[in-house]
Design a protein that fits this description.
Blueprint lengths: L1 H57 L2 E10 L4 E11 L5 E2 L4 E6 L2 E13 L21 E8 L12 E2 L4 E11 L3 E7 L6 E6 L8 E3 L2
Parallel strand pairs: 5-6
Antiparallel strand pairs: 1-2, 1-11, 2-8, 3-7, 4-5, 4-9, 6-8, 9-10
């Protein structure tokens, strides 16, 4: 009788151990599934963020040159900022902001569609200041230098894409030796940097600043 009871007890213990083992296997399988699923989501998110970051940098804007018009030997009264898009994407200049600062003063300028010239110029450096499309106050104008597909032709939403070059035109006084810094900030993508120090004397009417 005792032997029979002990055999039954051992059988019960064995079944209990088996149940616990199966439960542990199931828990481990579920945990592994959750980990794999989470890892997959994180990998996808990282890939998406990486692609978005790459696209954002690639689709920005770059400043190629800054020139000024010297009305006296010590004062510049106009600035022209040559910009072009980076290799990826298009830039709508109607939503692009230009910031410029001299010392403690900082200005934010927006596009003025009434100061728009889409007649393509070649280089523009020598004759650009003969044009009349110059922004004033808190607005900037636009003069197109290169545009093979006429994407900048519409005054309300001029858009630059690969290969395009335009001048952002500003009426602004800059004294000799002044340091000017700022950004061309598109709606999406990397900003173009404006940074220069004006020479002590302007010996030419058209001055290359950056």
């Amino acid at each position: 009788m005792v032997k029979k009871f002990m055999k039954s007890k051992k059988g019960a213990v064995g079944i209990g151990t088996l149940i616990i083992f199966i439960a542990m296997v199931l828990v481990a399988a579920i945990a592994a599934s959750v980990i794999i699923n989470t890892a997959g989501k994180l990998q996808h998110k990282a890939s998406t963020v990486g692609e978005e970051s790459t696209e954002q940098v690639a689709s920005g804007i770059q400043v190629l040159k800054v020139i000024g018009h010297a009305d006296t030997k010590t004062t510049i009264d106009k600035l022209a900022v040559m910009v072009a898009p980076n290799v990826g994407g298009e830039i709508d200049l109607s939503t692009t902001i230009l910031t410029l600062g001299t010392g403690d003063a900082k200005y934010s300028l927006v596009y003025d569609s009434t100061q728009h010239n889409a007649d393509v110029k070649d280089d523009g450096s020598d004759s650009i200041f003969d044009e009349t499309e110059w922004g004033s106050g808190s607005k900037y104008g636009l003069i197109v230098l290169q545009d093979s597909d006429n994407s900048t032709a519409e005054a309300t939403h001029p858009t630059i894409n690969y290969g395009d070059k335009v001048y952002i035109t500003v009426t602004m006084d800059v004294n000799s030796t002044s340091k000017v810094s700022g950004e061309v900030i598109p709606d999406y993508g990397a900003s173009g940097i404006v940074e220069f120090r004006a020479p002590s004397v302007f010996t030419e009417t058209v001055v290359t600043l950056q």
